[in-house]
Amino acid sequence: MKKLNTNKLTEEQANLFKNNLVYLSTVDADGNPQVGPKGSMTVLDPSHLQYLEKTKGEAYENIKRGSKIALVAADVPSHTAVMVLATAEVHEDDDYAKKVLAKTEFPNAFVVNLNIEEVFA
After folding, report:
1. Where is the Pyridoxamine 5'-phosphate oxidase N-terminal domain (predicted)?
2. Is 3-120 a domain of CATH 3.40.50.1010?
């Protein structure tokens, strides 16, 4: 993948995140990778993604510790993919989280907003 020198998704790239399963990768304190799917990923705007943290597992602990985040969305039939590097803003039980979660089936989830720093395609 080639770095595109932007922190904004094009409409086509945003659609890859909207229409495909997104994988999120973090690293733990020892540098070990953790990768998993995030079915609740949404596009807030060209520079921000959001997902609901329901499991509160290893990836979430890595994010709270400050891990950089890589996300990949790929459309297998067309062999099209986009990867972004991002940093997280975590919302646990604050007014913003309550507002977002009121529209979902997951009232006990946390809300993670992802600020896109780099885009690769």
Report:
1. 13-120
2. no
